[in-house]
Known about the structure:
The complex is a heterodimer of chains A (358) and B (775).
Chain A: E1 12-16, E2 25-29, E3 42-49, E4 58-65, E5 78-81, E6 85-88, E7 96-99, E8 103-107, E9 111-116, H1 117-121, E10 131-134, E11 147-152, E12 158-163, E13 168-172, E14 178-182, E15 189-195, E16 198-203, E17 208-212, E18 220-222, E19 239-245, E20 248-253, E21 257-261, E22 266-271, E23 278-284, E24 287-292, E25 296-301, E26 306-311, E27 317-323, E28 329-334, E29 339-342, E30 350-354
Parallel strand pairs in A: 5-30
Antiparallel strand pairs in A: 1-2, 3-4, 4-6, 7-8, 8-9, 9-10, 11-12, 12-13, 13-14, 15-16, 16-17, 17-18, 19-20, 20-21, 21-22, 23-24, 24-25, 25-26, 27-28, 28-29, 29-30
Chain B: H1 2-15, H2 22-43, H3 49-59, H4 66-83, H5 86-112, H6 118-189, H7 202-208, H8 211-220, H9 228-236, H10 245-253, H11 255-319, H12 323-334, H13 338-353, E1 358-363, H14 366-393, H15 396-415, E2 421-427, E3 433-441, E4 446-454, H16 457-464, H17 495-501, H18 511-514, H19 519-524, H20 554-586, E5 607-614, H21 616-620, H22 626-630, E6 639-647, E7 651-659, E8 669-675, H23 678-681, H24 685-706, H25 716-736, E9 764-766, E10 771-773
Antiparallel strand pairs in B: 1-2, 2-3, 3-4, 5-6, 6-7, 7-8, 9-10
Helix pairs in contact in B: 1-5, 2-3, 2-6, 4-6, 5-6, 8-10, 8-11, 13-20, 24-25
Amino acid sequence: MTDIGVILGATFVSIGALITLIGIFVCFRSEPHYYNPEDVDAMIFATISDRDFNKRHGIQIGVKNLHSNQNSEDSRMEDAIQPASTFNVSEGPLYSMASTERFLIVGGINSIHGWLWADLKSGQTKPKKSWSITLPTKTESIVKPEVNSLCTDGNGEVLYAGCGDSLIYAFDLSSGTLKQSYAGHKEYVHCLSVRDTQMASGSQDGDVLLWDVRENSWHNSLHPHEKEGVNRSNLGKWIGCIDLMDDWLVCGGGPALSLWHLRSLGLSTVYEELDSPVHQCLLEGEKVIAAGHSPRLIHFNLNGGIVLDIPSSSNCIYSIAHAKQPREVISIGGTSPRLDFCSCCKYRDYILFFCDSS
Amino acid sequence: MKTVESKSRGKERDKKPRPENDSVNSPAVREMKKVKRDEPPASNDHLSPPKKRALDGGMSPKKQSPGDFYHEVITKEENEAEVLSGGDAKTLHQETCADILSTLKEALDLKLKPDKDSKDKAALDGCRKRIVMGSTFLKKLNRLEKYHVKLSRNQTLDAKKQVDGLHLQLQNLLYELQHLQKEVQKCLNFRSQDEAIDLVPEDEFFKEAPAELYDAVLGMCGKRCEGGNVSGKRKEGKGTKCVYVLPQAKIGSDAHLLRLARLGWELEERKRLARDCQQVKAAKEVQLMEIQRKQATLRNLEPMLASILQACNPLLEAFSLPSGHIRELQHKAYYLPSPLYILYVQACAYVDAFDKKVVAVIHGNEEEAKTLTHSHNQLRDDSDSEAEGEETRKKRHKKRRNEAERDEERRKRALAHHPLSVSLSIVLPDGSTIVLQFRYVDYFNLVTVKVTLNISPDSAQAANSSISGNLLDPENILSHLFPGDSGEESPNPTTRHHLKEVKVESWAELVPQLGIPYHWAQKMAGLDFLPLYDVHRDDNVGGGSRGTLVKANPEVSARCIKDVIDAIRERVASRVALQKQIVQIESLHVSVSNGREAVYSGKIGSKLSSWKSISWGEYSSASTVIPIVREELVSPHSRFYRALLERGSAARIVALIAVDPDYPRKIPLFSLSLKWRGERTAKNDENVRNRMYSMGQELERELNVHLDGVGRKEEILSLQLHRLLLGMDVYLESTCLGDNPAEFPKEKLFFAQARGRNQVKPLHYLTELDVFVQR
Lengths: 358, 775
């Protein structure tokens, strides 16, 4: 099942800070171009977890072939897998994960770490860290900023990090140097979305700022919490997730999940069905995939109707990833130690968790 | 006409094997035509006899010898037939027919001519001749064809015969092949019996086997090992052993010979070993006899010694030696059953070596014990025979009653413990004592414990005022002293069957009568049973041999006695401390020893408003603990409490607390649900619960994970509650931050209201700086 010899990257799941006992907090990015055509069915997913009482913050990587097993007779829906490798990353919790063709990138407190995928796939149980960037924070504070969101541009050359000091940093991945920093938010940055030169960011202060990555000031802003019908005062005004596509932007958090037209900066649709805080949303062509503080993953169409409603093992979902190539897979992670996979996007067909390696 | 003739002539020439010269052709043809004329009688019997005769007559003048000629003609025609192919014959036939037809036409023309001159008549004659010639030729063709058919039929028959013969031969050969293959397979499958024999390894064999063996083997299959060569050398070197090195090499290279030699050696060896065995057995017999003899001597010695002992008793008393009490105990100790004896001896050793605060005493009636040991086995047999006797005499209903009585009696005997028991009194630092009374139940081969606790006056006050379930209940204060040792089930696997025999459902029924069969008690008494379940064996107690023999072994006892006593001390102390904490908490007052690290000294807004003990059923049915129960993080043997915390009137936290029997080694597990704000506004009930549950998780983590190892172990429950109150304050204050007017104004010092995508509140308290930060 987890043949280390043939591990090659597919989609991967990354998991951030941890909840009580055995909970896992997941966030996730998918890079469709990352598939290796020879081993398309192998799937690596990495989790960052804090197992039980050990107070560790690390990454676990496991490999599972999601597609072939489907046909075999004893295809159990719930399956424990042995982590191929488990390694500690930092003292503090981990908040975010991203990937380029070469690197697995993890954001923790005040620092970003990178591993070569080649090392991870070689099956070493304790892969060597490839590089590490410390955030250029100016003030000497007890509270170090965390890296809440990581995003790479299409070529995997620039890494954008939305951080706890309300700034967004852009790092050149080839040299590891700071390329630019973007100031504008008044509170810490929750989420980022970068498409070509367009960047959108959401923050605890409730603002959505729109940037051109070549300039260091924002050019437009949205305030979902000031909009009637979007605002949910009891849940706060923070924006927890954001996604951009062409002229559309979807965002949610304390305010309800909403779809905005970027040219006119006008509100298009409000998705009231998701009545809990929203933690993750994806804008995929004609549909919006979103989840939050409830154990379900909902697919909406652009007009606000529900297309699909998939139950999840986590009470609170922090990460959704959608890989389209070579086969469609959606993975869901959250406060449960279990990860859910929908290999055809219609229903949940796998629940995986790591067996205790100790 | 000429053309026709030449044509037919050409045909004649064609059917001949060797073409003849054209000039010589005409006589030959003519002769041939004669032959043709002769043929019909030979092959065509169907011709009408008169015609035949006429023909014959026509031919006769030319005949030299009829027989010879006839044969000659036949031979000739046969040769012709052989040469003439079917196609040629056909074309010849057609041509001849056409010829005849044209000649007929010509003749008709001539006949129809009105004025016939002689020339015409001659021509008509010629025509007639030619027609006759043509028909004769046709006849000949027919004959030749007949012969041809016959010939080819014969040929086909011959070929067929040949093919049949070959086919038969092939089948024979195939069958033979199959048979041979079967034989080969049989040979290959043959398994000799020698293969099953476990042989001496080859190296050893070469080292040890004597040279004579090779000799014998070589002799046995002298024919096989290419004769003269080896045997010659053998003859030469007869008498000297070094020569046999050569045969050895020879054998070594020949697997069959080697095998034979090894088998031979095996036989020798086994014979020798059998002899040895017999010798050893004989020696053993002798030893046994010796032992019996010596035992008899010893037995005679015993009464003598006893009388001497009795004789010196008055003397000892006269000198009032200190041995009085101890000796009496020791005397009693002789009558202890072996597990209790081991326990007693080891406990005494422990007392002498380490700890004067433990006292070991033997209780019970010595005489009873004495009689029991003597009559133990007899009794059982008697009761059986007696019962049989009764059965035959009494009536049915009486018998039934009797049986019941008998069962009762049997049961009583089975459930009786040994009249002697060992008591261990352990004195604790605070003056309390715990008394463990160990008893031995022979029927089950188990040691049971009865616990009595004498609590010192200052602790007693706390213990007695508790409302919710007494933690110091002697029945369970020592349960789960080591992992998995609940005392509810007997550690002896055979107990289940014994219980069935005496019609007792479970050991729980016997506890008041016999006591609790803790696993550690068995270990202290040297009984090392295999664990019933595959629990992690505690290193303190475990590590013993996993042998199946369950006989009292002093080793086992010696290894664990100190650990057990230490564990008991620790357990009682921690239980007393826990009890004190709980009594305090029950009065809704959370206090942690002042000045201790990790304690917040400022004002705490939240208050504990209720504290209740609940059952496992109540606990496990709560929705907040579903994952905890599912992951089996809590044992049902824990104690469960429900606490209600309030701040103001709106915010409430319901905490479900599980205190493991192994407290404080395992810290209490909190699961929380927060009720505030959400309840008023949200539509969907389930959603609220979910959300609040997850928010509570941050706090839970702080309490359950990060507090482990902070501060003093004994006070961990109070510390956790203290932190829970603090956490609740921080949570509410940080959430309200920025609201105007704030429901709960900020009183604690923290920098960031929240951090990270899950908006963690600053729940981690840094004691040095007196601030709250996120982890």
